[in-house]
Amino acid sequence: MVLNGYPAVDGTDSVIELNDQVKAWLDIDSVDAATAKADKNAALFYTAKSTEKNYI
Question: What does pTM read for this prediction?
Fold first, then answer.
């Protein structure tokens, strides 16, 4: 979900959901970290989440 033009992040969002938010916010092609690790050519950027502070 994008809120006021920024990704709205909470502790219940999955990394897949966060990736969708980042792609919408930045209009870039990105994948989640697990996909990036499995396929180095999947996208130029990947997203990951710090579960401690729920940062993207």
Answer: 0.49
